């Protein structure tokens, strides 16, 4: 199905990010915003993205036979390069402006997008901080997590440790059993609030690269479908990789970018720029 013109228009209408929103994001390094997308938009993109995931998915191993990471979700990348209808969501000014407003930058560009589908019966997503994987110079990064349906606690919505971007310990851990165990214990002895809440349809969260987050298991028979967009500052520069995962990310998501230079490649287009309205 094609995206209706009314929804394409909706994606270009600015969302009002308030001073209070920015202050809350700066304090906690995540925020949940209601009514970012209409029920109609969610229904359309749920169908379109689910069909594209089915087309791209190559996982055939039974859920019970996968490791913790494999049980957490099906993971497909850069759907914007495969499907023009999905591209309209990923490139929307509405979402891009929210990202730029929250980070208080002049513009944002693509790092990559990612569909995260937690199957019925799927396991937890362990505690982790995304920027462990990213060879990026600053912390001006933000991920939009867009659930494609109303997401009760039983489906495993995203959870956050508010303000945990201040923690240095655990930043050297990839996502898995070790990060879950270590960070669960580490966060228990802090004053950071663990936020576990359902998501309404059309509600979207935005979180920074160094805030720790996780998701519970999906105890329902249905799939928890979510689409994510990872934005970085328009002027973000590449740094020398600090681990093998950052080297892999450089090769995969920023091919041709040079250390010390702005990451301006065909894979990393500008998605919103205040100076090009």
TrEMBL record:
This is Phytanoyl-CoA dioxygenase. Coiled coil: none annotated. It holds the Pfam family PhyH. Keywords: Dioxygenase, Oxidoreductase. Its cofactor is Fe(2+). One of its GO terms (molecular function) is iron ion binding. Gene3D superfamilies: q2cbj1_9rhob like domain (2.60.120.620). It comes from the Bacteria.
């Amino acid at each position: 199905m094609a995206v209706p013109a009314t929804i394409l228009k909706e994606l270009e209408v600015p969302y009002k990010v308030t001073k209070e929103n920015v202050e809350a994001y700066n304090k906690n390094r995540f925020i949940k915003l209601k009514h970012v997308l209409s029920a109609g938009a969610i229904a359309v993109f749920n169908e379109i993205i689910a069909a594209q995931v089915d087309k791209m998915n190559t996982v055939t191993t039974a859920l019970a036979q996968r490791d913790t990471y494999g049980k957490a979700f099906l993971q497909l990348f850069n759907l914007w390069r495969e499907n023009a209808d999905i591209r309209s969501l990923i490139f929307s000014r509405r979402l891009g402006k929210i990202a730029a407003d929250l980070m208080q930058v002049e513009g944002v560009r693509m790092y990559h997008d990612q569909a995260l589908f937690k199957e019925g019966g799927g396991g937890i997503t362990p505690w982790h901080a995304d920027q462990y994987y990213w060879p990026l110079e600053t912390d001006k990064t933000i991920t939009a997590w867009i659930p494609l349906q109303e997401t009760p606690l039983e489906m495993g919505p995203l959870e956050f440790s508010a303000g945990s971007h201040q923690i240095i310990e655990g930043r050297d851990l990839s996502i898995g059993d070790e990060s879950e165990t270590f960070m669960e214990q580490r966060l228990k002895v802090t004053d950071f609030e663990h936020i576990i809440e359902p998501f309404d349809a059309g509600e979207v969260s935005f979180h920074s690269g160094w805030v720790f987050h996780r998701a519970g298991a999906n105890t329902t028979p249905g799939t928890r479908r979510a689409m994510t967009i990872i934005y970085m500052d328009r002027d973000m520069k590449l740094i020398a990789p600090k681990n093998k995962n950052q080297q892999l990310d450089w090769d995969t998501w920023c091919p041709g970018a040079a250390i010390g230079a702005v990451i301006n490649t065909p894979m990393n287009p500008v998605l919103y720029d205040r100076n090009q309205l």
